[in-house]
Each structure stands twice: as C-alpha cells, then as structure tokens.
C-alpha cells in the first residue's frame, strides 16, 4: 500500500489548483491522479478564449489557462500520475486505482480532495422520441472530435440545449464550415452565459429558439433531420407548431452531471440540489478529511471560481493533515429561499473563522432583484443586481464579523427579493 498525505483525484483545473493550494499552505507530500493522458481536464479541448479574466486579468484559451497551473505543479515538483483511473475510494481514505504502468494499486491518504469534474447528460436521459441513428453527439464529444482529434462530426447542425458548451460549439462548427440552423432551448431563457449567446450565436446570425424542443429525430443509416416544436408553460410541445430542420448532426448541450460515483463509495453525502457533495465552508464533506472542489462539487460557470475554490480545499486539506483545521463546532444549515438554486456550501460552522463564500444559480431570470442573506431574521447582506439569470452564478462573500450570530442561529437563509410589480 502506497501512502501519501494528500491525494487529489482528477488533474483538471480543480485538481491542479487544489495541489497548488495545498503546496502553498505547506504540504509537501501530495499526489495527483488523472485517468487521461495529460493534465488539464476539460480545458484541453476548450481552445476558445475567455478563460482567466478574474484570476489573471487576461483572456486566455482553455489550454493556456490550464498551463499556468501545470507550470506551478511542475515548479513545485508535485508528483502526478496520468492514465490512472481511480475505481474506488473508501471512507478510511484508501483509493484503489488502475493504470497500464502500475496495474492495480492501493493508496492510503491522510486527506483526499475529490476533483473529478462532470460528464454530459446523454440522449438517453432526455426521452426524445425518434430514430437511434448515428449523427447525434453531446456537444463536448463533438468539441473533442473537432479540437483534439481533427474530426468533423457533420456539416448541417442543430443544437439542442443552450448550455455554454452548445453555444461554444455553435460558433466552432460555423468556423469549421458547417451550417448551424438553430440552437433550440426548452426553457424561456438560456442556461448559458450572456457573453456566449452574443459572441457565439448573435454574431453569426444563429437563431436561439427559446421555449422549443426537438420532438422527433429522423434518419435510419444516418441522421437526416429533426422536428422542433414550441412548448407551452408546462414545457409540453404545442401541437401544430412543429417545424422540420434537415440536418446531419444533432448536438446535445442539455446539462452536466457531477461525477460523484467515487464520492458515494467513500460514504460522502450528496446534496440533491447540486448533485455534488454536501460541504461546509471549509469544503469538507460529510466524511472527515475528504474535501471536494470544482465541477464535481457543483457545475461552475467560470473556471476562475473553480480554481479559487480548489485552492481553498487544498489549503484546508493540509490543515486537516496537520490537525490545525478548525473543528468549527455546530454546523448551521444554509437554507435556499426564493429564487435560489443549488447553493454551496450547505453548512457553515458556528465558529467560522475566515470569510465565507456562497455560490448558487438563480432559478429564473430576475431583473433589478436583490440577493439577501438573513441570520436570525436579520439581514446581514443585501446586494442589488440589474439582472440575475440561471446561466450566471452568484458568488458572494461574508466576513466572519457578519456571521457572529451563527452561534445562536438554527439556519442561515439566502434568498432573492424581486421588486413589487
Ligand atoms: C465546452 C466547455 C466550455 C467551457 N468554456 C468556459 C469558458 O469559456 N470560460 C470559463 O471560465 N470556463 C469554461 N468552462 C468551464 C470550465 O472548463 C470548467 O469549469 C472546469 O474545467 C472544471 O474543472 P474541473 O477540474 O472541476 O473538471 P474537469 O476539467 O472536468 O477535470 C476533471 C478531471 O478529473 C479526471 N477524472 C475524473 N474521474 C476520474 C477518475 N475516476 N480517476 C482519475 N481521474 C478522473 C478527468 O479525467 C479530468 O481530467 C467550459 C467548460 C466546457 C466543458
């Protein structure tokens, strides 16, 4: 059995930043494992720019952003092992992994940081009727084909779902000579960033059909077209609104699923609202010494926030190993009030020592609304925003002095207040 102080599962932006955070806090015995050939996670295939505006105040491509952290990992001589798939993690913090180089290995850690990212929701989870023909890809798979493998999935494209990956792929496929007929979104709003709607659809004249969905898929040997229909407020197709789009490629951008199978094996409690681990403000899960960060914890909009979160998880994992991580006392649950979806953290320690950051996605589009935090019925934070939308995460921080009331609180409430009509 190999032993290490801090084991990081996943060498994407979260895993890399967790390693850097742990090292900069003082850790020297760290190991990163990743199943892919190279470090960098999903960023390896994100060759568009728009990364790093917050962290580096520069507009980088995905590989450039990842490289900044890979260089730190190399400079600090943090060991990593690629082409190594972790297949099990126990509550005792023993990871089992397999690799061609070393076969089956067991690694015992004093602390583990879960950084496995997420996978895309496949067609099977949608229940769309129609043929099961070739020509249907998740947007990320198509992105991998075009950007890493030099393969072109097709020439006539419809995109279902307006998540950021779909929006980015609408532009990418256009650059590569394809005709993107439409981006079809079930909800009355996009789940992607506003900047991606403008730069990837509007700038190329690609229509965004809100409140629409694909109701039929045609083609036997290969996809030949899809039928799209408008949906009503109940999200059900409205008969008579069907429209046929001839196409050879349907790209799905219908959501991401955090990869928490290992977390569950380790006994970590999963929050139904985020599909990620339940964590406290230190990013520690329900299993002491197991931390979680990045897209496996909750699906982020910007990688900068992934890095920030993971660096904190890394530093806290080292404090845990040292025995200096504050126990924090009673865990006060965070309640999601009106308009708040999938908040992290789910608990705040009554003796929280540092600033506490909350991240969540608004449930709908709200204009001139306020984000409010209440403790014992008293407002301790209030901020007005011109627009809040599900595609853009809300990120707010509270200094410890604002949280003094936690000692007597049963819960802390985060809610959105919309102006009266
Ligand atoms: C198409 C696309 C476009 C994006 N565009 C932008 C953008 O313009 N700007 C921006 O800021 N952000 C963007 N993002 C978001 C950003 O890329 C993610 O927030 C970030 O990559 C999440 O980092 P992560 O480390 O949590 O996950 P990932 O990058 O997914 O890394 C997870 C890693 O864990 C490894 N792993 C998983 N399971 C195991 C296992 N069992 N054993 C070993 N290794 C394992 C995987 O191989 C992977 O390397 C985009 C994302 C996508 C998908």
- CATH fold type of the largest domain: FAD/NAD(P)-binding domain
**Shape, please?**
globular
Say which CATH homologous superfamily of the largest domain is assigned. FAD/NAD(P)-binding domain
Regarding quaternary structure, what we see is: single chain
Structure notes:
- The protein has 3 domains: 1-120 and 255-325, FAD/NAD(P)-binding domain (3-Layer(bba) Sandwich); 122-254, FAD/NAD(P)-binding domain; 328-421, Immunoglobulin-like (Sandwich).
- The chain is globular, with a radius of gyration of 22 Å.
- It has 421 residues and is an alpha/beta fold.
- The protein has helices at 13-25, 62-75, 139-149, 164-175, 194-201, 261-265, 303-322, and strands spanning 2-9, 30-33, 49-51, 60-61, 80-81, 84-89, 94-99, 103-114, 118-120, 136-138, 156-160, 179-184, 208-209, 212-218, 225-230, 243-246, 249-252, 256-258, 270-271, 276-277, 290-292, 331-336, 340-344, 347-349, 356-362, 366-375, 378-388, 394-398, 412-417.
- The strands form 8 sheets. Strands 1, 2, 5, 6, 7, 8 and 21 form a 7-stranded mixed sheet that branches. Strands 10-17-11-12-13 form a 5-stranded parallel sheet. It has a 5-stranded mixed sheet with strand order 24-22-29-26-27, with no helix packed on it.
- Strand 7 (94-99) and strand 8 form a beta hairpin.
- Helix content is 20%, strand content 35%.
- Helix 1 runs parallel beside helix 2 (62-75).
- The model has no long low-confidence stretch (mean pLDDT 96).
- The longest helix has 20 residues, at 303-322.
